[in-house]
Specification:
Blueprint: E1 2-7, E2 13-19, H1 31-43, E3 47-51, H2 74-85, E4 92-95, H3 99-108, H4 112-120, E5 129-135, E6 146-152, H5 162-170, E7 180-183, E8 190-200, E9 205-215, H6 224-228, E10 240-244, E11 250-253
Helix pairs in contact: 2-4
């Protein structure tokens, strides 16, 4: 796990977009939808993004994906992904690997997710990233700072039901204590919140903390493996997470 601090100063808010499960190289990759999101990020001065893995499909001879049905080989897909993401490289704040990129790692020891991150200048960790999202709305007062901790990794498992997919992202809370948790893998965009009580031994008080769970979506049109396995079609695209910079308030739009 890599710990990354991103200071947004006195910005009123930011949008954080979890980009993952694009599966570039698969014939069902919805490039138009992907470019629409990228261009939206470009137009929003306060929009940033993280890369959740499975950016490329990475079909290999020993994988479940059909190499004969791909429109690009892994090298072509990696280079195309880099070109698609270059216009927002200065808005990317963290990245991790997905199970599809891990296919290449297991067979060759080459981490294509790390190569993409390096080419784009994005901080990277293969296992997961803990973000510290900081705001300082009143720097002259030296108080009132707003901080969010956000843990992200690609995710795993999940099953075919909506409940199982929700459980998949909720398991991230077993790893580290954070304000928000983000994962992908299940191709199901959803969000929910829970609360937990946190003792403050300095003041003798018990604080109630709200945690937000975000399951990202995908850019893969329905069909292929998902249809053969009897999985339900899902909405394309990913959530938009709005972090308020004046007070601690996180909203997620699907």
């Amino acid at each position: 796990m890599k710990f990354i601090t991103k200071d947004f100063g006195n910005l009123e808010y930011i949008y954080l977009i979890p980009i993952g499960d694009a599966h570039i190289g698969d014939t069902r990759f919805h490039e138009k939808k992907f470019i629409e999101l990228r261009d939206w990020i470009i137009k929003q001065p306060n929009a940033y993004a993280v890369l959740l893995g499975d950016i490329i499909n990475a079909a290999t001879k020993n994988s479940k994906s059909d190499i004969y049905a791909e429109c690009m080989n892994p090298a072509q897909a990696m280079n195309h992904a880099i070109e698609l993401l270059k216009p927002i490289k200065d808005r990317l704040i963290a990245s991790t690997i997905g199970n599809h990129e891990e296919r290449i790692w297991r067979e060759s020891g080459i981490d294509v997710a790390e190569i993409m991150a390096r080419e784009l200048g994005v901080p990277y960790d293969k296992d997961g990233v803990l973000l510290n999202v900081k705001f300082d709305p009143y720097p002259e007062l030296r108080r009132g700072k707003v901080n969010y901790t956000v843990y992200m990794n690609h995710g795993h498992g999940g099953g075919g039901t909506k409940g199982a997919k929700i459980n998949a992202v909720s398991k991230l809370a077993n790893i580290v204590f954070a304000d928000a948790y983000i994962s992908g893998h299940v191709h199901f965009a959803t969000t929910f919140k829970d609360s937990v009580y946190v003792p403050d031994t300095r003041t003798g008080k018990i604080d109630k903390m709200t945690r937000t769970y975000i399951s990202s979506g995908s850019f893969l049109d329905y069909g292929g493996y998902a249809e053969k396995m009897g999985m339900a079609p899902a909405k394309l695209g990913v959530p938009r997470c709005r972090f308020d910079g004046k007070r601690k308030d996180l909203h997620v739009s699907i």
